[in-house]
Design a protein that fits this description.
There is one protein chain. By secondary structure, the protein is α/β, with parallel strands linked by helices. It has 2 domains: about 140 residues, Aspartate Aminotransferase, domain 1 (Alpha-Beta Complex), CATH 3.90.1150; about 270 residues, Type I PLP-dependent aspartate aminotransferase-like (Major domain) (Aspartate Aminotransferase, domain 2, 3-Layer(aba) Sandwich), CATH 3.40.640.10. It is built from 14 helices and 15 strands. Strand 5, helix 7 and strand 6 form a beta-alpha-beta unit. It starts with 10 loop residues before the first helix and ends with a helix. Bound molecules: pyridoxal-5'-phosphate (PLP). The site of pyridoxal-5'-phosphate has 14 residues, from helix 6.
């Protein structure tokens, strides 16, 4: 897609750096770190992006886990433009054709075709919506005192005040008391399993922590349980099928709403449109965002199965009194429709499966490096490489390791965009990636690790 934006160069680049240093409040980035060295990007095509200085790099993180269809799709830009020309947003309490058609498309792709879709602006709002929906569903169905939500430590469910209390990330800012009723259990970790034994048995034991928490907290007070099918925040540990199957059983046994937070995994990332389909599991509510528009516009959704959604049919008492002014913006809906057309035309979900397997196979050669402790993935185009000090004992690098300073620079020099690369290198490239481009990623990682080992004095 050719842009008509003027090219920026020379003095203007320096000026922009200075302005950004003074006025741009970056999201979750240390302000001192990027002052004067902020990466500014101007162009994108497929898996490739070009920074303002003309460096062409492969975006191995697909933006921030969202660039599923790749950069530079003219048909998505055109669809957004056409929607803007027709009507950018409808009068209050009404809908546009794009919003209605998108609800039909998402429910067609979702395993429960009777689903009803509540559109919002992003992942955090999708989680807020799902939790409120679950609580009201419970209240309307005889569990009026149910307000607790069980979630996993080290997960990430968003940056808003409620969703952040579900994640319990050590990296989150202290905000005082969490949402009343936020109850945390352990996460799944395939590399450092919390118990000894066969991985399937351990995974079921981990899932059983939800049951223990529900019982200890009084099942009548528990509204919902939430987990990501594969948690990127917790390090991309793919669970055995039995983990989510057990979550489903527990939710059914105690009449608790099972929310799958698919903000990263939704729309093809794991080789299925929706990740629990890999394990034959149907959650009650699914939250999605990122890949729904591949990042061309901000959009998220809470997808309610028919069973949940039907609770809200009726009079004033049943009405879901939840309103977000720009939730499901028609221009974003038009972008999503065009994006999902690309998915179907180019079989991006099949490509995620095929290229995900290929990437995982190719990554195995990184074990030639002493500092590679674990290569994880194998379920679509989501993978991680964990670096350790001592492979035999799985000893992590110290928390203050220089790795987080060294690695992003080394990767950038080898034309790879990463995100927060340190002892964990996460990979989430566009689903449109080719095998040559996968080879490029793996070679760049291989070279980077050779250089890193040499810099660290590891033989
Ligand atoms: C699993 C999960 N849930 C929720 C969110 C929040 O989404 P957003 O940043 O769009 O609000 C994220 C963001 O990365 C996420 O990974």
């Amino acid at each position: 897609m050719t842009s008509t934006l003027p090219t920026v160069s020379g003095e203007r680049i320096e000026e922009l750096q200075q302005i950004a240093g003074e006025h741009l409040f970056m999201h979750a980035v240390q302000t001192n770190d990027w002052r004067g060295s902020l990466k500014i990007f101007e162009k994108g095509e497929g898996v490739w992006v070009e920074d303002i200085e003309g460096n062409r790099l492969l975006d191995a993180m697909g933006g921030l886990w969202y660039k599923a269809a790749g950069y530079g799709r003219r048909e998505i830009a055109d669809a957004m433009y056409q929607q803007l020309l027709a009507i950018d947003s409808p009068p209050a309490g009404s809908a546009t054709v794009s919003q209605i058609e998108l609800s039909a498309k998402v429910s067609e792709l979702y395993p429960d075709h009777g689903a009803r879709i509540f559109f919002v602006s992003g992942g955090s709002e999708a989680v807020e919506t799902a939790v409120k929906m679950a609580k009201k569903h419970q209240a309307l169905n005889g569990k009026a005192g149910a307000f607790k939500v069980i979630s996993r430590r080290y997960s990430y469910h968003g940056g808003t005040a409620m969703s952040v209390s579900l994640g319990r990330s050590p990296a989150a800012d202290p905000m005082g008391p969490e949402m009343p009723g936020a109850v945390h259990v352990g996460n799944w970790n395939s590399y450092r399993m919390p118990y000894e034994g066969d991985p399937v048995d351990v995974a079921v034991r981990c899932a059983n922590e939800f049951e223990t928490a529900i019982v200890h907290n009084d099942p009548d007070t528990v509204a919902a349980m939430i987990a990501e099918p594969v948690s990127a925040a917790a390090g991309i540990h793919v669970p055995p099928a039995e983990y989510w199957q057990r979550l489903r059983e527990i939710a059914d046994k105690y009449n608790v709403v099972l929310i799958a937070d698919e903000v990263i995994t939704g729309f093809g990332r794991t080789g299925e449109y929706f990740a629990p389909s890999n394990w034959g599991v149907q959650p009650d509510i699914t939250t999605v965002a990122k890949a729904l528009t591949s990042g061309y516009a901000p959009l998220g959704a809470a997808i309610a199965t028919k069973r949940i959604a039907d609770s809200f049919i009726g009079g004033p008492k049943e009405t879901f009194r939840h309103l977000i002014t720009f939730g499901g913006h028609p221009v974003a809906a038009a972008a999503a429709l065009a994006n999902l057309e690309v998915f179907e035309r180019e079989d991006l979900v099949g490509n995620s499966r095929r290229m995900g397997n290929y990437l995982f196979d190719q990554l195995q050669r990184l074990y030639d490096h002493q500092i590679v402790g674990d290569v994880r993935g194998g379920l679509g185009l989501l993978a991680a490489v964990e670096l350790v000090q001592d492979r035999d004992n799985k000893t992590p690098f110290p928390a203050d390791a220089a790795l987080a300073k060294m690695l992003p620079k080394l990767l950038y020099e080898r034309k790879l965009v990463s995100f927060r690369a340190g002892d964990l290198i996460s990979l989430c490239p566009p689903l449109s990636i080719t095998s040559d481009e996968v080879d490029f990623i793996v070679s760049a990682l291989d070279d980077t690790l050779t250089q890193l080992e040499s810099d660290l004095g590891v033989s």
